């Protein structure tokens, strides 16, 4: 019978051991979540150029870790923020959440690649 030789097993074990520690991943998620929350606040402060702006929506933006630190949720809590983000038939949209997300997602992907060694 022929023999089977497996090479690279030590490298695989090292990678699996490294992946077991989710601390660095949680750090990246939290850092990027907080940055996105701050970006949402900046956008909400500067985006509302039409109508009456008091800063209530910007002040209402909160964020917190979810799923044991593997996720982050940032959102405004004013009941009318969806109307500002998406608009209505009477007013144009003045988005502040989606631009913040789009800015942050590239940074997040880059940071995660550094953590997982891609």
Automatic annotation (TrEMBL):
Cross-referenced InterPro entries: HK97-gp10_tail (IPR010064)
Source domain of life: Bacteria
NCBIfam families xrefs: phge_HK97_gp10 (TIGR01725)
Protein name: HK97 gp10 family phage protein
